[in-house]
Design a protein that fits this description.
192 residues; mainly alpha; globular
């Protein structure tokens, strides 16, 4: 089946629901991150982090479950799962993505609202490669899964996830500049 720009028969309900879920998560997660400085003065930092986690974690869980249940929806644009080397490539890309995602995501004390979330700018480790390891990891993850699945649903999901992470990078850098009243380093070289 060929996809026409004027014929949207491939765009089914699951695509639109995923776009809605991604948009809802982006508004909830990024919106609450933007409100953090103001809200912490009203209800306290710890309570705000608990509320943030109680909204963000279930929303993210719903997104993951919905993606898993609908990953083969839409049109299958390519099928490369049987091509020699593709499985190894996808597993390798997935492993690399988690090297970036893990340190950026899983500080369990921050997730549990025990510690205040912070911006970490280290001169060693993954930050030497990128200031935004979660965004880089998510992009690599999206490339791997889109390559493996090859469906329009996966493309829609990946584009949404990448767009959200690019917005989060912009928003986070903007907030960091305001907090620190100094420009961010533009490159790895400036960190050295």
């Amino acid at each position: 089946m060929t996809i026409s720009l004027t014929n949207f028969n491939w765009l089914n309900n699951s695509h639109l629901i995923m776009v809605g879920l991604l948009l809802g998560f982006a508004i909830a997660h990024s919106g609450m991150a933007a409100l953090r400085p103001w809200a912490e003065t009203k209800i306290g930092a710890r309570l705000y982090r608990v509320i943030f986690a109680l909204i963000s974690i279930p929303f993210a869980t719903i997104l993951i479950i919905y993606f898993f249940n609908h990953r083969y929806d839409g049109v299958q644009l390519w099928q490369v799962q049987g091509v020699p080397g593709i499985k190894t490539l996808v597993w390798t890309l997935s492993a690399i993505s988690f090297v970036f995602l893990y340190p950026a995501t899983f500080n369990l004390l921050e997730i549990a609202a025990v510690q205040k979330p912070q911006v970490y700018l280290f001169e060693t480790g993954i930050i030497r490669i990128t200031r935004h390891p979660q965004m880089v990891g998510q992009v690599i993850w999206c490339i791997a899964h889109t390559l493996w699945l090859g469906t329009t649903f996966t493309i829609v999901t990946s584009v949404g996830l990448i767009a959200h992470h690019l917005f989060a990078v912009w928003h986070g850098d903007r907030a960091y500049k305001q907090d620190m009243e100094k420009p961010l380093p533009r490159s790895r070289r400036e960190l050295l």
